[in-house]
């Protein structure tokens, strides 16, 4: 089941990556770096507001769904809480950063934050179903819808930052509508396999898990976006445009690790902790080492292909892309390993590694920007991710009893994947 969920998530991620890359190239070709930075600032604010509004309620529901008999209406209460939080945070952010009207399109922020927050919460709830079909549908639909709308705007000659933000909002809104419709047909009770001797559900314990998880998410968002936040709030629109193109393109390599992390949490959250060490180590071995090799190959390809693809206006982002490519693999591996603690309810451990790895990056920010802020930020972000991976490995060794030797590559890890693909091909031939 874990392998099937992973392959389904991976296939969805591949489709999203291809579509997202084409969209990124389209925006780079039609928008100058300053306009691209304007759009990036608005999208970043919406994404962070939506993420901050989650309150950990979605993962907490999945965890409790596996262990307790839940009271009716808990899912709707979580949805209402997320929506209210998104509205308040979106309004506060709009007034704080965009209140003076420095950049266009800012009234869209509140709507973008609300719709994206509902989408994130719906995706989190969908992880309680092992097959992850609804989860992957909700992930892919906004990307495809947004790409189609942006292509239409480009053909009509109406593509600007505000129009692009509205297209993105429409994509998330469509996914939310599908989620509400499809989720109504799915069971909402507790997991049928939940242990009967587990303690009864209690609101205090539920909120404790959700807020601990949310703290981890907030720290993760801060550690992965503090670079872009620094550029956004300092008003460096052109540098932000260059950095955004480098960052977004580098994220394409992390789709495998993203799919694996989602499959690990969906499969093991609230279940047998003894099997988590083996599952996390196996997935790490199968993804981290091959992706390091792919990272080197893509960096070499960027030397020749970056300018022809994105144009001379974005030539200054090539070096940052190469550093961020490696950072994506290292950061994805760290989050993948951290699922060992997140799925077993040890969210404090996950938060600790985030805090410790974030401090050096914050200390470096005052020294960045004197020569090349785009390249310097990429280097600082890479150092932070390397520290976070080292901390995660240390926690796994001392708190989960995972021997680091088990993370070394093994050829036999790939046999189940090869056998599964072979069976799929034979079934299609028949």
Quick structural overview:
It comes from Sphaerotilus uruguayifluvii. This protein has 430 residues and is an all-alpha fold.
Key attributes of the depicted protein:
430 residues; mainly alpha; 77% helix; membrane
Main beta sheet, described? none
Q: Helices and strands: which structural class?
A: mainly alpha
Question: Radius of gyration in whole Å, from Cα?
Answer: 21 Å
Order of helices and strands: HHHHHHHHHHHHHHH
End-to-end gap: 23 Å
Percent range of helical residues: over 70%
The average pLDDT value, as a whole number, equals: 82
In total, the number of strands is: 0
Helix segment tally? 15
Stretches where pLDDT is under 50 for at least 5 consecutive residues are none
Shape: globular
What can you tell me about this protein's structure?
- There is one protein chain.
- This protein is 77% helix and 0% strand.
- It has helices at residues 2-30, 33-52, 57-67, 74-97, 108-126, 133-156, 161-183, 203-233, 237-250, 255-268, 276-310, 318-342, 347-364, 373-399, 415-429.
- The chain starts with a helix and ends with a helix.
- The mean pLDDT is 82.
């Amino acid at each position: 089941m874990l392998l099937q969920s992973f392959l389904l998530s991976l296939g969805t991620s591949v489709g999203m990556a291809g579509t997202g890359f084409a969209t990124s190239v389209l925006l780079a070709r039609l928008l100058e770096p300053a306009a691209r930075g304007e759009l990036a600032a608005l999208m970043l604010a919406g994404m962070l507001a939506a993420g901050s509004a989650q309150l950990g309620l979605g993962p907490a529901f999945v965890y409790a769904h596996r262990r307790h008999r839940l009271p009716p209406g808990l899912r709707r209460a979580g949805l209402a809480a997320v929506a209210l939080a998104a509205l308040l945070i979106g309004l506060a952010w709009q007034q704080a950063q965009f209140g003076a009207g420095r950049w266009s399109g800012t009234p869209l922020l509140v709507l973008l934050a609300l719709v994206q927050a509902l989408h994130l919460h719906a995706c989190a709830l969908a992880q309680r179903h092992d097959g992850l079909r609804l989860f992957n549908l909700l992930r892919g639909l906004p990307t495809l819808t947004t790409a189609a709308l942006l292509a239409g705007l480009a053909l009509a000659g109406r593509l600007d930052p505000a129009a692009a933000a509205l297209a993105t909002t429409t994509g998330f809104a469509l996914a939310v509508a599908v989620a509400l419709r499809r989720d109504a047909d799915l069971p909402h009770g507790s997991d049928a396999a939940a242990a009967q001797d587990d303690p009864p559900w209690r609101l205090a314990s539920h909120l404790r898990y959700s807020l601990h998880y949310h703290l981890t998410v907030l720290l993760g968002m801060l550690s992965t976006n503090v670079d872009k936040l620094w550029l956004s709030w300092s008003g460096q629109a052109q540098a932000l445009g260059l950095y955004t193109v480098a960052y977004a393109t580098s994220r394409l390599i992390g789709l495998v690790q993203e799919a694996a992390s989602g499959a690990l949490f969906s499969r093991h959250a609230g279940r047998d902790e003894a099997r988590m060490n083996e599952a996390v180590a196996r997935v790490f071995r199968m993804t981290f080492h091959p992706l390091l090799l792919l990272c080197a190959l893509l960096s070499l390809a960027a030397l020749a292909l970056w300018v022809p693809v994105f144009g001379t206006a974005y030539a200054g982002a090539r070096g940052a892309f190469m550093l961020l490519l490696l950072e994506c693999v290292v950061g994805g591996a760290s989050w993948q390993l951290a699922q060992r603690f997140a799925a077993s309810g040890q969210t404090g451990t996950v938060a600790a590694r985030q805090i410790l790895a974030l401090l050096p990056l914050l200390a470096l920010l005052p020294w960045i920007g004197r020569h090349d802020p785009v390249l310097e930020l990429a280097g600082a972000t890479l150092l932070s991710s390397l520290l976070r991976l080292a901390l995660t490995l240390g926690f796994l060794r001392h708190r989960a009893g995972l021997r680091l030797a088990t993370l070394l590559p093994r050829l036999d890890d790939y046999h189940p994947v090869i056998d599964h693909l072979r069976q799929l091909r034979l079934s299609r031939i028949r």
